[in-house]
Structures are given as C-alpha cells and as structure tokens.
Amino acid sequence: MSDEETRRSRGSSEARAAAVSDIQELMRRKEEIEAQIKANYDVLEGQKGIGMDEPLVDCEGYPRADVDLYQVRTARHNIICLQNDHKAVMKQVEEALHQLHARDKEKQARDLAEARREALSRRPGQGESQDPLQAFARVNSVSAGSPASFAGLQVDDEIVEFGSVNAQNFQSLQNVSSVVQHSQGRPLTVTVIRRGERQQLRLVPTRWAGKGLLGCNIVPLQR
C-alpha cells in the first residue's frame, strides 16, 4: 500500500471514529431528554394524576384548588418542549446512522477493489511459493458496525493470513492479538477462505462503540 493510500485509510478511520462519537453523544442527549420527560410526567402524576389534558377548572369554571396550577402548567409546557427536542434528536440520529452506513459501504467497496488488485499482483509466477497456505483460524462471530464488519469479514470465514500471522508461524490467538495491538489505526491484509474461494480483505483495527479493536471473535482451527 502506498503512503497516499495509507493516509487515506487512516483519514477514513478517523472520520468514522468521529461519526461514531457524534452518534454516541446524540444517544446520550436522547436519554437525558427522556429522563426529563419522565420527571415532568411524575410531577403531573403527583398532582392527582392530572395528566396532559385534564381541565384545570372545576365544574363551575373556577381554577381548581386541589392541585398546584403553576406546577401543572410548567410541567405540561416542559413536556411539550422536551418532546419536540426528542423528535429533533431522533431525526439527527437517523441521519447520522444513514451517513455512517453509506460511508462504510463506500469504504468497503474501495478496500475490496484494492484487495482484488493486490491479489492479482501476487498471482504465482512472481517468485512466490506454489503451495497455498492452510487456514489456521475461523471467524465465529462478527458484530454489526464493527471494524471487522466494516472490512467485510463474515462468520465462518477461515483465516489463512492475518497480517504477518499464517499457519506456519501461528501458535495461539495471542499471535493475532499482538498483531492487532501493534496495528491500531493501520490497515492489515487479512486473507480468508470463503465458500472455497480465497479473498483478501483490508482490516483496520480501531476503537469503536463496542469492545476491543475488531468486533469479531476468532477461534483456532483443530487440524
């Protein structure tokens, strides 16, 4: 990979991390608004369960004396304003998720195209061994929205190469973990066998909304 491609990949990863952070902040704001709405409904419930629509005057048209009219009016006003705020935040969340998913699809398409070009350039006849490497591990789960999902990894993919790790030097999953930790924010070439065909993917270990740097689980193959 050229320096320009590396910079572009790092920039895309940073932009994605910023987008995820923005979504998390919006979700925190949503939860705060929901808590405030509940608190105001609790105020109404404490005023004889008066709710949002019950009249504040008695049958003779006089202000009710059994409730705190100021508290009721204030709580009702707050609820209406907060519900509008909640609607606006949810629209922002929806738009941010749509943009994130669109960016992920574009990045995945670019990475797959780059992986195919690299695979073609590494075809036998360029001094490489003619014996294909064996798979040493299998992917048994991939979290949605994770770096692994972003790279195109799928459940039941058999891993032939993970960065510098292959069947010839693999001893334990600690080998893979070490490569991941030393490659945070930098693209790794991952070669897998999927439905009998070898595929090369571009995986960038990075912080995301879930645990770890990959968002997938890998288990050793028993040979």
Along the chain, the helix and strand elements come as HHEHEEHEEE
Q: How many alpha or pi helices? A: 4
Strand content: 5-15%
Which structural class best describes the helix and strand composition?
Answer: alpha+beta
Overall description:
With 223 residues, the protein is an alpha+beta fold. 50% of the residues lie in helices and 14% in strands. It has helices at 3-46, 69-121, 147-151, 173-181; strands spanning 137-142, 158-162, 165-166, 188-194, 197-203, 216-220. Strands 1, 2, 3, 4, 5 and 6 form a six-stranded antiparallel sheet that branches. Strand 4 and strand 5 (197-203) form a beta hairpin. Helix 1 (3-46) runs antiparallel to helix 2. The model is unreliable at 126-131 (pLDDT under 50).
What's a quick, concise take on this entry?
The chain is α+β, with helices and mostly antiparallel strands and 223 residues long. The chain has helices at residues 3-46, 69-121, 147-151, 173-181; strands at residues 137-142, 158-162, 165-166, 188-194, 197-203, 216-220.
